[in-house]
């Protein structure tokens, strides 16, 4: 392995600095070059080369992300198309994508160096917004594409089609189209199913629908989901991975399809989706306050 890139979430500065020190110590003993992106937060360390983030491509064999799922989502979009695999070290809450917990850092790094891992290619979504039949915005998502109401408590009407066949007009707080990776995020909170990320599907989940029946619908990733927003004068927002926003207008159409790109995520030997899911969900249950 010629080099490892490290992308930290500097909002967790204390934890990040401790983890970087451990990675530097581990890699210096094995003559492995480390790269960090340029940042005002950065404190120079021996054995670490500081580069623009885009320069990681061609120099690093893998990118280690220090943070939670939100940090990984951002990095996945930044490196989309580069084929650089990502290994997440969880400094967040759930961390479904960041499978390495800090106490297991050195053990996990050794597995990485020994080649005891697989690269899992995660489905991504392509999202295009059309206004009066003209494209006005285009995004790529790893987790989900969400259409939701603005600051006022008014119902959003999402006229939803699959391959131009009418599925449902959802009167609701919004609609989520997620990947299997995103099924453990907002979609899960809205009552959607947990889906193994190895499956090539998309999940359509309404948010608080004003319907007597409401269930998520799972469709093939080869299909196209189209949502026509019926907003009148109400504010409706398109959100990509919970991080990028775009204001929608009445009669805008959002097309969601499988993206031509994937996100390569490293799965270390001994790890699997179901064990990870059990561990992460139990972690949340353990944090719940004791009921009196």
From TrEMBL:
<protein>
    <recommendedName>
        <fullName>NAD kinase</fullName>
        <ecNumber>2.7.1.23</ecNumber>
    </recommendedName>
</protein>
<feature type="binding site">
    <location>
        <position position="243"/>
    </location>
    <ligand>
        <name>NAD(+)</name>
    </ligand>
</feature>
<keyword id="KW-0067">ATP-binding</keyword>
<dbReference type="GO" id="GO:0019674">
    <property type="term" value="P:NAD+ metabolic process"/>
</dbReference>
<dbReference type="GO" id="GO:0051287">
    <property type="term" value="F:NAD binding"/>
</dbReference>
<keyword id="KW-0963">Cytoplasm</keyword>
<keyword id="KW-0521">NADP</keyword>
<feature type="binding site">
    <location>
        <position position="173"/>
    </location>
    <ligand>
        <name>NAD(+)</name>
    </ligand>
</feature>
<feature type="binding site">
    <location>
        <position position="154"/>
    </location>
    <ligand>
        <name>NAD(+)</name>
    </ligand>
</feature>
<feature type="binding site">
    <location>
        <position position="74"/>
    </location>
    <ligand>
        <name>NAD(+)</name>
    </ligand>
</feature>
<keyword id="KW-0547">Nucleotide-binding</keyword>
<feature type="active site" description="Proton acceptor">
    <location>
        <position position="69"/>
    </location>
</feature>
<feature type="binding site">
    <location>
        <begin position="143"/>
        <end position="144"/>
    </location>
    <ligand>
        <name>NAD(+)</name>
    </ligand>
</feature>
<dbReference type="GO" id="GO:0005737">
    <property type="term" value="C:cytoplasm"/>
</dbReference>
<dbReference type="GO" id="GO:0003951">
    <property type="term" value="F:NAD+ kinase activity"/>
</dbReference>
<dbReference type="InterPro" id="IPR017438">
    <property type="entry name" value="ATP-NAD_kinase_N"/>
</dbReference>
<dbReference type="GO" id="GO:0046872">
    <property type="term" value="F:metal ion binding"/>
</dbReference>
<dbReference type="InterPro" id="IPR017437">
    <property type="entry name" value="ATP-NAD_kinase_PpnK-typ_C"/>
</dbReference>
<comment type="similarity">
    <text>Belongs to the NAD kinase family.</text>
</comment>
<comment type="function">
    <text>Involved in the regulation of the intracellular balance of NAD and NADP, and is a key enzyme in the biosynthesis of NADP. Catalyzes specifically the phosphorylation on 2'-hydroxyl of the adenosine moiety of NAD to yield NADP.</text>
</comment>
<dbReference type="Pfam" id="PF20143">
    <property type="entry name" value="NAD_kinase_C"/>
</dbReference>
<dbReference type="GO" id="GO:0006741">
    <property type="term" value="P:NADP+ biosynthetic process"/>
</dbReference>
<dbReference type="Pfam" id="PF01513">
    <property type="entry name" value="NAD_kinase"/>
</dbReference>
<keyword id="KW-0808">Transferase</keyword>
<dbReference type="GO" id="GO:0005524">
    <property type="term" value="F:ATP binding"/>
</dbReference>
<dbReference type="InterPro" id="IPR002504">
    <property type="entry name" value="NADK"/>
</dbReference>
<keyword id="KW-0520">NAD</keyword>
<keyword id="KW-0418">Kinase</keyword>
<feature type="binding site">
    <location>
        <begin position="69"/>
        <end position="70"/>
    </location>
    <ligand>
        <name>NAD(+)</name>
    </ligand>
</feature>
<dbReference type="InterPro" id="IPR016064">
    <property type="entry name" value="NAD/diacylglycerol_kinase_sf"/>
</dbReference>
<feature type="binding site">
    <location>
        <begin position="184"/>
        <end position="189"/>
    </location>
    <ligand>
        <name>NAD(+)</name>
    </ligand>
</feature>
